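Input chain follows. Return structure tokens only.
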Amino acid sequence: MAAIWLQFGRWIVWLLAGLVLAYTVVGVLRRFIDRRAFDATDDPAGLTWSQFERLIGEFYRRKGASVTSRGGPMADGGVDLDVTYPTGERLIVQCKHWKSRHVSVKLLRELWGVLDDEKADGAIFVTSGSFSADALAFANGKQLELIDGPKLRGMMAELKRSQPAGPVAEPAQSASNPLCPRCESPMVLRTARRGANAGEQFWGCSTYPKCQGTRPAS
């Protein structure tokens, strides 16, 4: 009986190892596809909504950020991408692949409204179309960047000119950065934006909001 359980345990270990390997291979393949798609795309207007979202993710990776996708065909709470730079700056991004529609102020208010709950440093709204006049007025003076179709094409072209096509290194995590006490992912240095500790720095998990682990900075 013990031998049967031992063999069963080995099968479970091999199954888990296989799943981890498959997940890693799929991730590497997807990154390769995203890099090739970014290099080959000059005008995002012809993409599907999912391709557009992945294009924007690759854009911020090439700018040195770690990117977590939170979007999809279901409701996403207004946040499609979680962007974190090595400095600890964290931004939330919403993508709308609209070819002819204007992004209204209503959508901007919704994204701005979750900024505090997300504990992010700012928000970015990216569209392949354009923004209405009231949307532009609403974003003025806020930590809310608006990127429309023409601006996005220009930013992509500038980034491609400054970087050679091909594999792009992932942003390096400093060896001095601690690991999250909850999930053991690398942590990034952040600054509290509200509460009794507003203005003070702390270590936050790089996978936030999936994991909300923290450590004191000192």
